[in-house]
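Tutorial handout. Part one gives the primary structure; part two gives the three-dimensional structure as tokens.
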Amino acid sequence: MRIEVKVFPKARKEEIVRTEGAVKVYVKAAPDKGKANKAVIGLIAKEYGVRKSNVRMITGETSRNKVFEIEGR
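Part two.
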């Protein structure tokens, strides 16, 4: 399963917000050396009930718009 997300780093709290046609992910981590990406992967894994190793970033390593693939779902 693939999901497209827009990431908001340095947020006050960590959460996933779904709106019509968009998934927004808010993380506390700063976009420094991949810290925000790791936090997003952890949050997605928790939300979908899979291990972090089952969540893989397809595109958007340095962008706020990212595509993730979730295996085992």
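Part three, for discussion. The mean pLDDT is 94. The two ends are 7 Å apart (CA to CA).
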